[in-house]
């Protein structure tokens, strides 16, 4: 559905100098530096897949979305979506995609939601019957009914986002690009939106490409994750694969009957990353899954100390991704853990 | 056909919006009226000092002014949104949204807003034309009226094309409101007979590059059944049908060029921000 091959995008950036004098200097100077926003990016998203596209601010996410939605041409490489090259045949292409930018509304500010929807029907030439069917479906799953006739300017952020999402889906697009759809929303609305996206995908097999900084979005919605950093792809696979490759640590929290300090003998062992006294009688041990024989470790500790409780934790997605970004857990590739 | 339907849909939206801002609408009409009265008084003031300006008397000047106000008003009515393209559509990223729709972007910009108060200018212009025409005892046949309508459309095209042309730099510079303002200021030259601009280069510019005289000067001399006198097009002065022919040709070429330039800009456009 979405195929991206060796995509590069370069921007010319005028050399900037500091201060007022510097502003003048850069105004007249013709020097510029070339900034690579996307560097040899390739990935695939199949029909009906929901792909999470994540990366730090400035990693190239928005640039990718802009190229994929036909707003920009890449410097090199090619992408096809839905069998078309987005930036080549814009008018035909945009008819079959939906785009939502979380920080910008596409609705008519002064008018009720209903009016925006009926204009969109005309723009996308959706047949009346199909439209009303679609509308009923979207109104129901996004809970729009209560504010359907309210002017957009009076809506809350969450309501606006829901209406926006519906607006981008009215013409039943084959591909949906969501650029931070849950930005700034409360937990309840986030949950509603996630459920709705899942339902839409299930119902119409819409392909979704979603950028977000909220990894709960990814965990709940996506069956594919693409991570980019500085314009380069650094991971592409399912959530499970991501965990297998990068969630290489475990943390076990012990609670002891009495005050216990440090467990010095344990700390010295191979593969133990950290031993921390959380409280007087609580200690957590962080270790590398592959190098430590966990049953043995447990036996040793239970045999020596009076353990009343313990919990084993695998790292949260947030931690994993943070690790990927900061590159301090690529243990498998031979570097040691910091 | 589809675009016409869409246009009315958008017009419908506009009217609903305007009804929500009644006072804003009334102020709009009011400010148009004040501007017109002001211009009127100024013209009368000028003619209180002299009887004839470049061969045109007071009522003939009013006639010309009437055409100017009518065309400008119509342009103001349907084609005001291109200003917001020049000023801020690209800057604040709303132009990207337009490109995400399966529509012609120029059409979308035009359609997105109508300025109802422009209609009051059209009416004022029409009234001025009829009143001054009466005083001047103009006798116009059906064919003449038809040709005048064509000239009216040519005038609209000239405004449209020049606005488009002067908004295109926004693709390179992000915002070019001042530049466009400067360009449109030149339209004021068409309130006066072309013959008052003695400089040959300025005349040529106004005839072929920024042909604002098509808006008011040419329709006026067409009505008055005069020729262009000392103004030579190709090899001599023109009158009657030649005026219409000239206007159609020049306006069409200008329209073609301006759309081309705009699309060149569109092609190198890159959206800003996130």
UniProtKB/TrEMBL annotation, chain A:
GO molecular function annotations of the record: ATP binding; ATP hydrolysis activity
Matches recorded under PANTHER family: ABC TRANSPORTER ATP-BINDING PROTEIN (PTHR42711), ABC-TRANSPORT PROTEIN, ATP-BINDING COMPONENT (PTHR42711:SF1)
UniProt keyword list: ATP-binding, Nucleotide-binding, Transport
InterPro entries: AAA+_ATPase, ABC_transporter-like_ATP-bd, ABC_transporter-like_CS, ABC_transporter_ATP-binding, P-loop_NTPase
Limits of the ABC transporter domain: 22-255
Name of the protein in question: ATP-binding cassette domain-containing protein
Superkingdom of source: Bacteria
Lineage, highest ranks first: Bacteria, Bacillati, Bacillota, Clostridia, Lachnospirales
Keyword Nucleotide-binding: yes
SUPFAM superfamilies recorded: P-loop containing nucleoside triphosphate hydrolases
Automatic annotation (TrEMBL), chain B:
A Pfam family matched in the record: ABC2_membrane_6
Keywords: Membrane, Transmembrane, Transmembrane helix
Transmembrane intervals: 25-47, 53-71, 119-139, 145-166, 205-223, 243-263
InterPro entries (UniProt xref): ABC-2_transporter-like
Matches recorded under PANTHER family: INTEGRAL MEMBRANE TRANSPORT PROTEIN, SLR0610 PROTEIN-RELATED
Protein name: ABC transporter permease
Organism: Anaerosacchariphilus polymeriproducens
């Amino acid at each position: 559905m979405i195929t991206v091959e060796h995509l590069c995008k370069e921007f010319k950036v005028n050399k900037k100098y500091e201060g007022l004098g510097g502003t003048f200097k850069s105004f007249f100077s013709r020097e510029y530096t070339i900034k690579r926003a996307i560097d040899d990016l390739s990935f695939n998203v199949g029909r009906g897949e929901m792909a999470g596209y994540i990366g730090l601010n400035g990693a190239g996410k928005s640039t990718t979305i802009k190229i994929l939605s036909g707003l920009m041409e890449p410097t090199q490489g090619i992408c096809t979506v839905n069998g078309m090259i987005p930036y080549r045949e814009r008018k035909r292409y945009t008819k079959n995609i939906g785009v939502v930018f979380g920080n910008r509304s596409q609705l008519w500010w002064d008018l009720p939601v209903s009016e925006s929807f009926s204009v969109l029907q005309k723009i996308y030439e959706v047949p009346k019957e199909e439209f009303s069917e679609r509308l009923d479906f979207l109104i129901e799953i996004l809970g729009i009914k209560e504010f359907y006739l309210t002017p957009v300017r009076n809506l809350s952020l969450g309501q606006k986002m829901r209406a926006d999402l519906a607006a981008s889906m009215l013409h039943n697009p084959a591909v949906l690009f969501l650029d931070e759809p849950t930005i700034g929303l409360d937990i309840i609305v986030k949950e509603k939106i996630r459920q709705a996206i899942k339902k839409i995908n299930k119902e119409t097999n819409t392909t979704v490409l979603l950028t977000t900084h909220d990894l709960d979005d990814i965990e709940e919605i996506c069956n594919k994750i693409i991570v980019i950093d500085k314009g380069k792809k650094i991971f592409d696979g399912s959530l499970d694969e991501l965990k297998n490759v990068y969630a290489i640590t475990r943390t076990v929290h012990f609670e002891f009957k009495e005050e216990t300090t440090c467990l010095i003998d344990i700390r010295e062992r191979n593969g133990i990353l950290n031993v921390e006294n959380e409280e007087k009688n609580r200690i957590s041990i962080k270790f590398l899954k592959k190098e430590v024989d966990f049953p043995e470790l447990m036996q040793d500790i239970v045999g020596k100390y009076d353990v009343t409780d313990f919990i084993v934790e695998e790292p949260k997605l947030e931690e994993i991704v943070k690790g990927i970004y900061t590159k301090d857990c690529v243990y498998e590739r031979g570097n040691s853990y910091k | 056909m589809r675009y016409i339907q869409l246009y009315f849909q958008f017009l419908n939206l506009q009217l609903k919006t305007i009804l929500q801002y009644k006072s804003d609408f009334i102020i709009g009409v009011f400010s148009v009226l004040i501007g017109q009265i002001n211009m009127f008084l100024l013209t009368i003031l000028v003619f209180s000092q002299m009887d004839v300006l470049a061969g045109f008397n007071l009522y003939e000047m009013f006639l010309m002014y009437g055409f100017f106000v009518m065309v400008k008003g119509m342009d103001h009515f349907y084609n005001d949104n291109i200003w917001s393209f020049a000023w801020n559509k690209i800057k604040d990223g709303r132009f990207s949204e337009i490109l995400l729709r399966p529509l012609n972007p120029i059409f979308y910009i035009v359609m997105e807003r109508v300025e109802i108060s422009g209609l009051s200018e059209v009416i004022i212009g029409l009234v001025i034309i009829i009143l001054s025409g009466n005083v001047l005892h103009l006798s116009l046949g059906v064919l003449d009226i038809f040709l005048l309508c064509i000239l009216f459309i040519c005038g609209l095209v000239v405004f449209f094309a020049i606005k488009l042309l002067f908004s295109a730099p926004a693709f390179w510079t992000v915002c070019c409101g001042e530049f466009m303002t400067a360009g449109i200021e030149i339209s004021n030259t068409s309130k006066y007979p072309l013959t008052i601009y003695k400089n040959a280069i300025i005349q040529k510019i106004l005839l072929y590059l920024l042909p604002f005289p098509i808006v008011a000067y040419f329709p006026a001399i067409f009505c008055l059944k005069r020729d262009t006198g000392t103004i030579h097009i190709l090899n001599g002065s023109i009158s009657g049908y030649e005026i219409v022919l000239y206007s159609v040709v020049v306006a069409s070429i200008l329209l073609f060029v301006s759309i081309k330039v705009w699309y060149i800009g569109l092609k190198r456009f890159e959206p800003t921000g996130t």
